[in-house]
Amino acid sequence: MPLSPPAERELLHTRAITLHGYRRADGLYDIEAELTDTKTHAEPSHDRGSIEAGEPLHGMWMRMTVDERMVIVRCEAATDYSPYSVCPQAAPNFARLAGLTIRGGFLKEAAARVGGTVGCTHLRELLQQMGTTAFQTIYSERVRRGADADSLDTTILNTCLAYGTDSPVVKRRWPELYTGAE
Question: Whose CA is closest to 113, among 59, 158, 84, 72?
């Protein structure tokens, strides 16, 4: 285990998020995410009566179809389990993400379309992971095909330590964009 040993404790909540990236026969890509929250104890629910231990409190899905330029062609979401009966009404609003490009500022643009009371906090939380999964899926497919993957890669400059313009990774891959010391 890479973390230090924990203090004595009791498991109360589990959130499982699973993401998959697919290449479609039509040349587009599907990025799918599933989020499930469960408790280790029963919890009362005004709308559901009782949510039993191990039964999903939240069970949500999202699929983004993107093109190779990282433009969202279609997005759909579904809420199978939620604590409130009104929650599934937010899922269709995620279709509003069509036309956005996954790049710097994507989450801010997405929040403008599905933020606040038209969206769902938990579905919005999936967007960052889905963006990363889209990049990983499309980039690796371009490398596998022998395409110019580095042209897509520059969208991630300054998103983390390794891709900072002053890092040795950028110096090696895009020397013309390197800003660090020589």
Answer: 72
Contact by Cβ (8 Å): 72, 97: yes
pLDDT digits (tens, 9 = 90+) for 149-175: 555 566 677 888 988 999 998 898 888
First to last CA, the chain: 38
- Asked whether 70 and 99 are in contact (CB, 8 A), the reply is no
Q: Which two tokens stand for residue 85?
A: 């009966």
The 3-class secondary structure across 86-109, one letter per residue, is CHHHHHHHHHHHCCCECCCCHHHH
Which residues neighbour 180 within 8 Å (Cβ) at sequence distance 6 or greater?
165, 166, 167, 168, 170, 171
**Which amino acid appears at position 182 of this protein?**
E
Token reading at 59: 């069970």
Give the DSSP letter of residue 7: P
Encoded amino acid at 75, one letter: C
